[in-house]
Amino acid sequence: EVQLQESGPGLVKPSQSLSLTCSVTGYSITSNYWGWIRKFPGNKMEWMGYISYSGSTSYNPSLKSRISITRDTSKNQFFLQLNSVTTEDTATYYCARYGSSFDYWGQGVMVTVSS
Amino acid sequence: DIVMTQAPLSVSVTPGESASISCRSSKSLLHSNGITYVYWYLQKPGKSPQLLIYRMSNLASGVPDRFSGSGSETDFTLKISRVEAEDVGIYYCGQLLENPYTFGAGTKLELK
Fold it and tell me: Are A63 and A48 in contact (CB under 8 A)?
């Protein structure tokens, strides 16, 4: 069974970088696409970007200057880095597999940006 | 960006009755390959979103057949027949036609 698990700090200071890890079990990240999606307080959902089976990436243009998604295939993990965060980046962050859709999701990690 | 507009934003349903949620896209989601790239998700309280319907009308694995999706190029409907207590949560439509992938604002389904 495909399982995804996010991990990372729950509190980040403004202007710093947010770094999260998604650990995948039951499926290789060298197949399919693997993405990050966040849900803001108030229920708005935003797709942030993905990394493909080959390592290529695609990002939401609204984040393009601040976001980086990378991976470690030896650990079957992929990563999110979001730079220069503000309070508007406070959200629950999910990693997900993109097969025919976002068909498997992690449980989510709540990240608060606050001094 | 493609804007996904859902209606209503909240719905209260008597168990055993049906419910419908609408979603409209600002651009046709019908690709030249014949696939319509609209999806439906449910986020139950305290849980991650789960895929219900993919490519407009295909039921995701493990999803009860009480759920169905239909529509045209820009207007889509999720129908839930015989609503049960486990159907409570927030329903989202989303499009995967083009970057950036976008979601509707969500429809909260509650029981009467």
Answer: yes
What is the least distance, in Å, from the CA of A75 to any CA of chain B? 24
Which residue is closest to B93 within chain A, CA to CA? A45
Q: Do B48 and A107 touch (CB under 8 A)?
A: yes
Assigned token pair, B91: 């329903």
Burial class of residue A21 (count of CB atoms within 10 Å of its CB; 0-12, 13-18, 19+): middle
Q: 3-class DSSP state for residue B87? A: helix
For residue range B26-80, list pLDDT tens digits in order. 999 999 999 999 999 999 999 999 999 999 999 999 999 999 999 999 999 999 9
Which of A5, A43, A46, A107 has the highest number of chain B CBs within 10 A, making it the mutation to test binding with B?
A: A43
| pLDDT tens per residue, range A43-63 | 999 999 999 999 999 999 999
DSSP E strand boundaries for B30-74: 38-43, 49-54, 58-59, 67-71
User: Is the Cα torsion angle A83, A87, A93, A98 positive or negative in sign?
Assistant: negative
d(CA A5, CA B45): 18
Amino acid identity at A12: V
A92: closest CA among A26, A15, A38?
A: A38
Measured in angstroms, the CA of A46 and the nearest CA of chain B are apart by 7
